[in-house]
Amino acid sequence: MIYLLAGICVFSPTSILQAQDRQEDKAGAHGRRDRNGGLRAIQNFSLSQVPVNDASDSKVSKIQRGFDVAPVPLNLDGKDLGLAGLGSYIVNVQSGCNGCHSNGPATQYSPGGSPYFSQPKMTNPAAYLGGGRDFGPLIPGTASIVSRNLTPDKTGLPAGGLTFDDFLKIIRTGVDLDHLHPKCTGSPDGKCLLPPFVGDLLQVMPWPEYQEMSDHEIRAIYEYLKAVPCIAGPPAPSLLHNDCS
Questions:
Q1: Residue 127 — left, alpha, or beta (φ > 0 → left; ψ -120 to 50 → alpha)?
Q2: Quick check: helix, strand or coil at residue 224?
Q3: Which of 21, 50, 215, 232 has an alpha carbon 20 to 30 Å from 131's alpha carbon atom?
Q4: Is omega for the bond preceding 115 within 30 degrees of 0, making it cis?
């Protein structure tokens, strides 16, 4: 399916599959769908260095799986499809980013779509990666840790306009470029952090594990986040707010 948003072509994984079907029909290819109707292959990726007959855990199969599991329509116009598909695999399969970067368990899944209630899983697109989950204070009286909005704003860049260099710095070092929770200089005021926690670093987020990813993997996450729909979030001046248009 193709969506038109503000004059931009937005493709869902279904449209990519249909395009792939047409290409394979012309080429006389076979076996283009798996038993679940998922992507069997996606042509024209810049992946000539990846053997297509590699094991099922190859980059190509991860890219295909990434498009299969993407829970929202993706704006793939001008994106590197190989990176976007791999990024989806990392975000949605390996890392479970939406578990923290949604508004909490009550809104993470659509009504009737919570796997924890033995229902068919349906991610809530209105909250997907929009942040807002409150983890509470690390020490009573100090700042509550709230997950950030990772979706792109009107610039098309993730997390409200982060450049790749800044995104890479955050993943590699855990630095909080928003300086949201400074070190307490006196009594806690509900906005600062007390030692041993360091206010210059993101807390709760598992960046100490993510920093071990390769530059290519981090670039793939960034490319995928550029493709997901913008979530406006709460009104400005909330840090979670995005100007979507």
A1: alpha
A2: helix
A3: 215
A4: no
3-state secondary structure 75-110: CCCCCCHHHHHHHHHHHHHHCCHHHCCCCCHHHHEC
**What value does the mean pLDDT take over residues 5-16?**
42
- Amino acid letter for position 92: N
- Could you tell me the sign of the dihedral formed by the alpha carbons of 114, 208, 85, 35, in that order? negative
Q: List the domain boundaries for the chain.
A: 2-227
Q: Name the nearest CA neighbour of 211 among 177, 175, 173.
A: 173
Residues 6+ apart with CB under 8 A from 217: 86, 90
Instruction: Enumerate the β-bridge partners of residue 10.
Output: 3
Query: Which position has the token pair 């769908």?
Result: 33
In this structure, what token pair is assigned to residue 75?
């704006």
> pLDDT digit string (tens) for 106-157?
999 999 999 999 999 999 999 999 999 999 999 999 999 999 999 999 999 9
